[in-house]
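Table S2 (text version). Query chain:
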Amino acid sequence: MTVEDWPYGPCALVVGASEGLGAAFAEELAARGSDLVLVARRQAPLDELANRLRSEHGVRVRSTALDAGTPDGIATLARAGEDIGLIVCNAALSPIRPFLELTPAQLDAMLDLNCRSAAHLVHAFGPRLVARGRGGVVLLSSMAANQGSALVAHYAATKAYLRVLAEGLWAELGPSGIDVLASCPGPVDTPGFGRSAPTGRLVPPPMWPSDVARETLAALGRRPVVVPGRWNRIAAFAAARLLSRRQAVRLISSRTRAMYRPGSPRPAPADEPDR
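Corresponding structure-token output:
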């Protein structure tokens, strides 16, 4: 796709862009000639990424360190002066541990960053996109949204919210020229996934972030939900069509427990989802 064919210009907002999936989306968008506003909590990696993208792709990039899970962070983003044509909501918290071991503060933080920030961002920028008559929204959900699972019960529930929100907005905003997409990757080979300390072997192996970003952007405007990766799509189809809901929950829970044995889980950073 050429720069002239890219319908979501001139600038894209990527939230959770410091590494992993967010950085991969920034790279793919810059390659399409889109200017960028990059947001995450850490300024240094944002600046490093911004400098590289300016040098390699000749695009304009502004990097802003803030917490998108707070009202002040959302308000700051809503005041962005750039002509935003595409929003990528990638930031998430994903601690992997039994639900009852999460603190009330962790429960609230996950709702704030995983759910409320995405809803408020779309609500803030949506009228601008509608006024332009063209735009796009990508919400990073997860295959975990397909069913509940032990050790990620709250995380999976927040990702289910994003999938359902995207589906509803796809129908609601589509007539106004706004393409909305929920991307539901399985495990992705990101620094966050590595820091979560998985102890088991995944079959198939985790996807590369660049492949997830590329498949997601290719699906934008074509459907409301995409599951990147051929084997992930097969697994999702099999779980939905061949297993009962109870069987699917038990199977996924057993796989998650095998990946994260007692003593190994650690919370992933807030800048990106790791599932």
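Notes on Table S2: Residues 122 and 137 are 8 Å apart (CA to CA). Strands lie at 11-15, 35-40, 61-65, 84-89, 135-140, 178-183, 225-226.
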